[in-house]
Amino acid sequence: MTKEKTVDFGFKDIPAADKAGRVRDVFDSVAPSYDIMNDAMSMGVHRIWKDMAIAKINPQPGEIHIDVAGGTGDLARRFIRRAASVAKRRGGADAKAFIVDINAEMLLAGVDEKKDASLDLTRVCGDAQNLPFEDGFADVVTIVFGIRNVTDRDRALKDMRRVLKPGGRFFCLEFSTPPSVWLKQIYDLYSFNVIPRLGGLLANDQDSYQYLVESIRKFPKQEAFAQMLRQAGFERVGYTDYTGGVCALHWGFKT
Ligand SMILES: C[S@@+](CC[C@H](N)C(=O)[O-])C[C@H]1O[C@@H](n2cnc3c(N)ncnc32)[C@H](O)[C@@H]1O
Known about the structure:
- Strands 5-4-3-6-7-9-8 form a 7-stranded mixed β-sheet, with helices on both faces.
- It is globular.
- The protein has 10 helices and 9 strands.
- The chain has 255 residues and is α/β, with parallel strands linked by helices.
- The protein has one domain (6-253): Vaccinia Virus protein VP39 (Rossmann fold, 3-Layer(aba) Sandwich).
- It binds S-adenosylmethionine.
- S-adenosylmethionine is lined by residues 23, 27, 68-72, 74, 101-103, 106, 127-129, 144-146, 149-150.
């Protein structure tokens, strides 16, 4: 008899076939309050991390960007705006971004006609493990606070590399593990005691935020995740810690 394949869902092990549905339930539930909760949980720091990531990504005029698990579209908007500010100085075409998310509720929660008015932004419902783009489509692929929710992360990394042009760049911003023991202790205290309660108060959903905190702890540490990028075929892989390793930006190139 073959043993059923299991994967982590927070601190639980569940059949791999069930994870996508469980993750979808979480994000269906949190979608309407996602942006407010993000600001509340991180005290606004997620905006600084995203700004730091964009500075490293260095968007250029005319580039095509795919933001996988892009949710409400924070990073894709930043990408297009940053490329436009470069174009203002040096000239060049507008950048174009595609926000891909498995969850239509999250995509819908991000629709904002005012913010999106002059941006070439397309929302696509799709799975990180099987992206709806041809090989070599994009200059830049990003995944921000998304990869830990994906059932088969190796498969998703390979598919994100597949849709990059040769020379294209990949970036993953994700919660990580602070190397400092004291910082990790403070961070654990805050995460397990404050975040699920905030989720209960602001989003009326303590369980989903309990999952989010647990999923962060189950995610591979910085060097182990860098190794996963190399195994997926990325080259010149590197990473940098933000806020003492609470969060890390990983990158790799397709040659
Ligand atoms: C924590 S949110 C991050 C959203 C956004 N990137 C941000 O930084 O605000 C995680 C997102 O991953 C999406 N997601 C989970 N599994 C996915 C998959 N297999 N393919 C595409 N998106 C997925 C969820 O629907 C959710 O929108």
